Amino acid sequence: MQQDYFKNINSIKFEGKESDNPLAYKYYDANRMVMGKSLRDHFKFAMCYWHSMNDNGTDPFGRLTNLYPWNQETDVLKQAKNRADAAFEFLQKMGFDYFCFHDIDLIQEASTLLETEKRISQILDYIKGKQKETGIKVLWGTANCFSNPVYMNGAITNPDFRIASRAAAQIKIAFDASMELGAENYVFWGGREGYLSLLNTDMKRELDHLAVFFNKMVEYSKQQGFKGNFFIEPKPSEPTKHQYDFDAATVVGFLNQSGLQDHFKLNIEVNHATLAQHTFQHELQVAANAGMLGSIDANRGDYQNGWDTDQFSINLYESIEAMLVFLKSGGLKGGGINFDAKVRRNSTDLEDLFIAHIQGADIFARALIASEHILTNTPYSKMLEERYKSYDSGNGKGFENGELSIKDLYKIGLGQTNFPKTSGKQELYESILANSF
Ligand code: XLS
Ligand code: NI
Ligand code: NI
């Protein structure tokens, strides 16, 4: 019998910005059009299973504070079904079309991989049934190759092949499960792919192993008829001291070097960007420059605490800058916006999950609408164009097209005598942004 876990909460409706109902959207009007596309299609909002369904209010230092009612069942398969019931009830009430998961979020990991594989296959049919009933889809699936102690020295980049191959087997199982649920994408986040000390690490060999493995995954996914995208999710550190997928630029370089550039894109997470000493918008732009802006893990960090606090987004300025990159680069290639965020450990009411996701969706909607305004009703685009206009004709154009040699540049450069003092107008740009909502 399916339970109703969020009995007191009705479907979340759009009520507009005048509403003071915390359980209503103020800005996220799913059908509202922005630049010719509905907000719903721009964003493809997703709930993540791990934080919203599995976390039970844990943090790295303390045990769970909030064993969710759907996780209280001790029979493993029944518990997994309860969790799926809760997930789909939540998604339907939120009006979200997608979810993301790790293999072992769906059902508890067993003591052997063989047994875990059996468990996963048992829950898949149940979830497929719920997908059929509701039309809810999988944005991406992934394998958790970081929680199990077997991965303490790494997963695919483990110095011991016995463990690397175990990781490969686990990823195959997770990938197959994702495909079975019709996942539109598949993510690799290398939680243990990196090192703690370079002294005991052959970095080159480990990275070569990662490249070989990804190439084999491309080959396998083609054989299986996978039509989606592979995403790598950069993160500089935590849990390893140095992760191989440090930031967007590192990952783009690695993909190009490994012949993977046509098969992979990036999943950019806000908090990972800030951990890498970048802004969110910087990471989006780097990915977009490479034609690899695939998907977003939405959350935020904390300016005082330097770790992955995975809080829900509330930073409007940052979000507007991010949405400017998003709109200018034509949106996400295949992915969507996954709320890889968790309510605080002491936020123990079930409604807190809703309030958090509503606010998350609203901030993206508000930021996208503001960005549209900036691009269509302000001098912003013109100002930016103007700043680079010396490359639009004459020698500037010739340089841009690679038609000028160093000797040509020497001649032209020596002849320059007129250097106007040109203001960068940063404050004007900022005031346009600050007045855009
Ligand atoms: C952890 C990552 C993780 C990935 C999926 O920091 O964000 O949650 O998104 O493995
Ligand atoms: Ni993430
Ligand atoms: Ni993260």
Please provide a written account of the structure:
The protein is an alpha/beta fold and 437 residues long. The chain folds into two domains: 13-377, Divalent-metal-dependent TIM barrel enzymes (TIM Barrel), CATH 3.20.20; 380-434, no CATH class. Helix content is 45%, strand content 11%. The chain contains 16 helices and 14 strands. The chain has helices at 39-43, 49-54, 76-94, 103-106, 113-134, 161-180, 203-223, 248-257, 270-275, 280-289, 316-328, 350-377, 380-387, 394-400, 406-414, 426-434, and strands at residues 13-14, 24-25, 33-34, 37-38, 45-48, 98-102, 137-142, 185-188, 194-195, 229-232, 242-243, 264-269, 293-297, 337-339. An eight-stranded parallel beta sheet has the order 7-6-5-14-13-12-10-8. A two-stranded parallel sheet has the order 1-2. The protein has a two-stranded antiparallel sheet with strand order 3-4. Helix 5 (113-134) runs parallel beside helix 6 (161-180) and helix 10 (280-289) runs parallel beside helix 11. The longest helix is centred in the last third of the chain and has 28 residues, at 350-377. The two termini are 46 Å apart. Bound molecules: D-xylose and nickel (II) ion (2 copies). D-xylose binds next to loops. The site of one nickel (II) ion (NI) has 5 residues, from loops.
Provide a short characterization of the protein structure.
By secondary structure, this protein is an alpha/beta fold.
